[in-house]
């Protein structure tokens, strides 16, 4: 044991010593690896990175702190513990998901922030579960304590929205970091109880902030993600988010992950909650070093935090700090943990809190006195008491105080109901169309696929004939926004080419790897940047990322496209928790656009339906309330709804609705059912006349053919949306029924355009009203539109009855003058409210058939029924 051995170059246990006795070698290795810190890093396939870690972990006494550092740890630990004690004393029966058992988290986070700030970081975006959130807001972000305490008072909200529970809310703070004397911006993202759902949202927000700052290496903006041990191992979105970490269009250049390891998930112990040895094993897939550290050894925790922050700054890669601790109470403060973990909690009851242990240690070392410890504790308790008394003066909760990224200057000075125009001058349309239809400028050296040359030629011919298809309309919408300085980002599976090979925004050199050309990025010398990026094969993670991106800056069009609309079901958590209800819960607007290929075309159940009915069911407009008409009717409806759901049938509609996202004086999510067959349908074309200056999005496209010229003779008025329109008009034409059946298109389904539908219904007084859809009866729009039509028709009946009693015309009351079309008979049909009937597939459990023959039979039945008069 006393024999001296020469040390290899891959160890740093000797510091400057080149050789050591075997006994000392073992002692030093045990001190480094078998004490309060355990490190997993040998799987990293870089000798430089492995040696970098060894250099910081192996030398003797690396965790040793100076007296000043120890006093700072004690002060921070006192605040962390004091905050939880104060809440427990004042609100003993309230759920708060306290940090008792892992109070060291607060000093740990502050240490990471201190070191990162010293290394140049100016903005930190954090995501975390509910455990410890209030403490993080109070003692890491330094959110005013009285604002936190008002959350316990059960006050009404002063702002719009229904609000959320206190341990879901976020914040945004700019303050001076007293340790580094530098300004720092800290944001904690609001998130629901769906564990880890906030991870990709934080990453998207971080990436967006890096993008807008021009921080291409992530030196100024970084993210910190907090996790529970069971959720880190159990929630698949952790893996999805991890796999974005090195992708060029999604990387945030390294995230610091901190696991609050309670060694228990709600009531489930690790033997039943995961198959791997450690809860952090998921991080190994991206070569992230993992530091396990004893939460009851504050100095070891601080050392690990120093190393982690330096690692992220040096290598711009993910790193994990696993604080092995415990949970002193149950999952929340009213749970009884002894029901399920009796032996563990007997030990916890006998365990002294970390503050007591560390205070005793520092008193024994002579670093502080008992009086100093008491003085620090009493001072913080007084701060809490003063804030508590101040909170009593508050009368309302202000949710705007809890925004995680305020849009300064966006809403100020704007008329909240005035929308900019969406039409574009023809010269701009032609310029974008020609650029988008042309090969790269260096076409002689850039070899394009021959099939693409044909596509570009066909596009150029369309521009010359002043027409657009779906792909060209989209390019013109994007290009015109880029010209106006609006950043456009399109993300999702295979979006560069487009799942249906229709988009081709990125052209690839056929002989040179990585040589590409994107026409929309080179339209104008001073245009905004255009980002189009194929995502990983993830929906949950990537959609969350884009939501985070969209809330960072309102002056951007952020779009996520599902490869097929059905695939949004894997991202349902993000849709439900962040997109549908985000503004109501957190006063958090987002203009994100979800593009979802949709349509029954015999392609089977998983490639047909984006589940339109789900989005409509979550729309917040009241089916029994018909808003009064006003000049700003369209914008007011959009202002009051939670999101917009549309199923456009023409390229011009698509063009305008995308531009309307930016033209609005506020932001709302847009759910768009996009087509498959209509991408190349010869009739699904629009003229420049439908897009040029002076035109706008048409929420309803009325019948414009033969039937509209003699509305009194029309026997059936059919409303529909999306691609089924083309099936209907073809069948009507083939059967010679163009004067008998009128077909109107609902381009925007929600919020429901009562004003325009009312006009169309009144125009055809003798027509039977029908809603036609390609989806099954228990799917699609029927269950949404039927009660709203009922409300509208009942409202018309009431207006008619009132006008008759006053000797007036119901038509002039509805439309301000003019004559109603003459009814075909003398029967007083208006005394009974009209009804709307259904035309479409019967109910079904599956969204679509996979049999072409069965599909054709279903379609024939639909069209036969459509033609019955």
From TrEMBL:
Organism domain of life: Eukaryota
Requisite cofactors: thiamine diphosphate
Record keywords: Oxidoreductase, Thiamine pyrophosphate, Transit peptide
Compositional bias (Polar residues): 830-840
Pfam families noted in UniProt: E1_dh, OxoGdeHyase_C, Transket_pyr
The Transketolase-like pyrimidine-binding domain, residue ranges: 468-681
InterPro entries reported for this sequence: 2oxoglutarate_DH_E1, DH_E1, KGD_C_sf, ODO-1/KGD_C, THDP-binding, Transketolase-like_Pyr-bd
Positions of the UniProt region annotated as Disordered: 817-854
CDD domains: TPP_E1_OGDC_like (cd02016)
Family: Belongs to the alpha-ketoglutarate dehydrogenase family.
The protein, known as: Transketolase-like pyrimidine-binding domain-containing protein
Organism, as annotated: Loxostege sticticalis (Beet webworm moth)
Organism placement in taxonomy: Eukaryota, Metazoa, Ecdysozoa, Arthropoda, Hexapoda
């Amino acid at each position: 044991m006393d024999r001296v051995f020469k040390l290899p170059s891959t160890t740093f246990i000797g510091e400057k010593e080149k050789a050591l006795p075997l006994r000392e070698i073992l002692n030093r290795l045990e001190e480094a690896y078998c004490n309060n810190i355990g490190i997993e890093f040998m799987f990293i396939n870089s000798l430089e990175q492995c040696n970098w870690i060894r250099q910081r972990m192996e030398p003797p006494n690396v965790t040793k702190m100076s007296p000043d550092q120890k006093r700072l740890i004690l002060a921070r630990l006192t605040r962390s513990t004091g905050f939880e004690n104060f809440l427990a004393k004042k609100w003993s029966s309230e759920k708060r998901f306290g940090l008792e058992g892992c109070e060291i988290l607060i000093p740990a986070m502050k240490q990471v922030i201190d070191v990162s700030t010293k290394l140049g970081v100016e903005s930190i975006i954090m995501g975390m579960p509910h455990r410890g959130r209030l403490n993080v807001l109070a003692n890491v972000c330094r959110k005013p304590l009285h604002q936190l305490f008002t959350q316990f008072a059960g006050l009404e909200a002063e702002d719009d929205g229904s609000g959320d529970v206190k341990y879901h809310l976020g914040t945004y703070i700019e303050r001076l970091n007293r340790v580094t004397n530098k300004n720092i911006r800290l944001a904690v993202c609001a998130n629901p109880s769906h564990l880890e759902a906030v991870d990709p949202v934080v990453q998207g927000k971080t990436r967006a902030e890096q993008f807008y700052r021009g921080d291409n290496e992530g030196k100024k903006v970084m993210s910190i993600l907090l996790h529970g041990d069971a959720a880190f191992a159990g929630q698949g979105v952790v893996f999805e988010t991890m796999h974005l970490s090195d992708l060029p269009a999604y990387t945030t250049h390294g995230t610091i992950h901190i696991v609050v390891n309670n060694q228990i998930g709600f009531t489930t112990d690790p033997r039943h909650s995961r198959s791997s040895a450690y809860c952090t094993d998921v991080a190994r897939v991206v070569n992230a070093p993992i530091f396990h550290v004893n939460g009851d050894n504050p100095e070891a925790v601080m050392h690990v935090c120093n190393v982690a922050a330096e690692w992220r700054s040096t290598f711009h890669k993910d790193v994990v700090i696993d604080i092995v601790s415990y949970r002193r109470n149950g999952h929340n403060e009213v749970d009884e943990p002894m029901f399920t973990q009796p032996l563990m909690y007997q030990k916890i009851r006998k365990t002294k809190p970390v503050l007591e242990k560390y205070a005793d240690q520092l008193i024994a070392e002579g670093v502080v006195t008992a009086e100093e410890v008491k003085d620090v504790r009493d001072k913080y308790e007084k701060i809490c008491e003063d804030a508590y008394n101040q909170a009593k003066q508050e009368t309302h909760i202000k949710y705007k105080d809890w925004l995680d990224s305020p849009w300064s200057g966006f809403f100020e000075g704007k008329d909240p109901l005035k929308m900019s125009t969406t039409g574009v001058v023809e010269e701009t349309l032609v310029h974008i169309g020609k650029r988008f239809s042309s090969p790269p400028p260096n076409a002689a050296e850039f070899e394009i696929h021959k099939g693409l040359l044909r596509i570009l030629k066909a596009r150029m011919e369309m521009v010359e004939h002043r027409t657009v298809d779906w792909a060209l309309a989209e390019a013109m919408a994007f290009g015109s926004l880029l010209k106006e300085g609006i950043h456009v980002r399109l993300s999702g599976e295979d979006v560069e080419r487009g799942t249906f090979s229709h988009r081709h925004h990125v052209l690839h050199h056929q002989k040179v790897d990585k040589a590409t050309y994107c026409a929309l990025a080179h339209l104008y010398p001073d245009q905004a940047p255009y980002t189009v990026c194929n995502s990983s094969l993830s929906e949950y993670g990537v959609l969350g990322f884009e939501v985070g991106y969209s809330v960072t800056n309102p002056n951007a069009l952020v779009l996520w496209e599902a490869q097929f609309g059905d695939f949004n079901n894997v991202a349902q958590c993000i849709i439900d928790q962040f997109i549908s209800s985000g503004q109501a819960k957190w006063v958090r607007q987002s203009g994100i656009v979800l593009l979802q290929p949709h349509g029954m075309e015999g392609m089977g159940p998983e490639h047909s339906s984006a589940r339109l009915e789900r989005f409509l069911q979550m729309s917040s407009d009241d089916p029994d309330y018909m808003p009064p008409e006003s000049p700003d009717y369209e914008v007011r409806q959009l202002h009051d709804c939670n999101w917009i759901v549309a199923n456009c049938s023409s390229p011009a509609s698509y063009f305008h609705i995308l531009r309307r996202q930016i033209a609005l004086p506020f932001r709302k999510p847009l759910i768009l059912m996009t087509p498959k067959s209509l991408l190349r349908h010869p009739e699904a074309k629009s003229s420049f006349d439908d897009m040029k200056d002076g035109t706008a999005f048409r929420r309803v496209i009325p019948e414009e053919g033969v039937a509209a010229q003699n509305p009194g003779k029309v026997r059936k008025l059919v409303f529909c949306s999306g691609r089924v329109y083309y099936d209907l008009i073809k069948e009507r034409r083939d059967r010679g029924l163009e004067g008998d059946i009128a077909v109107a298109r609902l381009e925007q389904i929600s919020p429901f355009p009562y004003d325009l539908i009312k006009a169309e219904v009144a125009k055809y007084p003798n027509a039977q009203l029908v809603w036609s859809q390609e989806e099954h009866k228990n799917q699609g729009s029927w269950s949404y539109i039927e009660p709203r039509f009922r409300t509208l028709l009942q409202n018309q009946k009431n207006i008619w009855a009132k006008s008759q009693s006053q000797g007036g015309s119901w038509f002039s009351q509805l439309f301000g003058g003019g004559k109603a079309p003459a009814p075909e008979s003398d029967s007083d049909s208006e005394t009974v409210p009209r009804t709307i009937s259904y035309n479409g597939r019967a109910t079904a459990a599956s969204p679509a058939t996979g049999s072409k023959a069965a599909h054709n039979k279903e379609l024939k039945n639909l069209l036969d029924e459509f033609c019955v008069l």
